[in-house]
Amino acid sequence: SQYAVLLQSIGLLPVDPSTEKDWCGRGQHSEFNKNEKDKIQQILKRQDLLGSTPNAVVESVKCRRILLARKTINCNAKFTREMAIQEVAHLQKLKHLHIIQVVGTYVVHTELAILLYPVADFNLETFMQSLADESMEECLRRIYSPRSSASKETEGSEIIRRCLALLDSFRCLSSAMKHIHDSITKHMDIKPQNILVRKLQQNRPSGLNNAYRVYIADFGIARSYSTYTDSETEGPTMFTRKYAAPEVVDRDRRGLAADVFSMGCVFAEMLAVLAPLRPDGLTRRQAFESVRGSNEYGDSSYQANISQVQEWLLTLVPNTLLNHFPLDLLCPVVVSMISSNPSNRPSAESVATSFGASETCCSDSTEPEPLEATPDEPLWPGYR
User: Fold this and answer.
1) Cβ proximity of 61 and 68 under 8 Å
2) Band of the pLDDT at 377, cuts 50, 70, 90?
3) Among 263, 158, 152, which residue's Cα sits nearest to residue 216?
4) Which of 71, 220, 334, 344 could form a disulfide with 339 if both were Cys (CB 3.0 to 4.6 A apart)?
5) Other C-beta atoms lying within 10 Å of the C-beta of residue 342
């Protein structure tokens, strides 16, 4: 079939039988006729609508008690099946604990559906919004103050788990970005909305420090290359202006360092959530947003406010509530990540080393996690 030929051309077929995820009994990558939609619905039981774009609909579906995200793309002359399948090719190559996994694909007429794991509870943007300023401040005091038996109940609170997860995410995201760049791949759209956060099941021995896990997702405009020299490209491309590196916005020559800039912007926002309250009553994120919008053109993108953001980051060093988190060492790393000159930015490997993730991060291995069946009990309060 045409689909099989396409999959073979990008190395997705044949599939190694020892690793194949045969979700439907027809193989990892399957084809269905238009009159077989009822059969698909029996295999993939639709749960919720997760989001949509002009070209795609994302839903959660349950397959054999495993909750998956199904991204259904309506292929046409402007967005062809050949273009859509590239995301699968990238993810098939990028196997890492903190990168979303492809479980399989299938086609029905003009539609291409990609099955992804896991289904997240948040993206990083909404996860950070869930950490209110007052509770975060109190949370940090409780984490880093001497604990008594009376604090045991507090230690298990959701806000502390989320705070610790955000602290750990610097290492985890650094490790994932290193893996992406080691594979000579550019993500090209790193931003909080493209980083997923999942609450781990409570029956696993995760402890406070591993209650959540982050995943880099949405490789729809990513590009892979044969050599690092080839990864230096120029010309127009899609991008999110707020997080794009200056060379991307200006359509100059850019390479892997553009991803480092975007991740630096994400890290700056994470630090803004973890920063101390201001005496003027502004929340941390409000203060940070005012810094980012302080240029004369009203442009709130990072590339238009690099020096202001860098100066603000360096003021975070005296935060005594984060004495366990070495801001005096790590803020300069983030400052260098958002340098206007790409050659002054550290490599992804250097960033991972700075954040203690040169080999592993939150687990003994960075191999992708096994697929977990959904628990029998209802989803936890606050889901989505």
Assistant:
1) yes
2) very low
3) 263
4) 344
5) 20
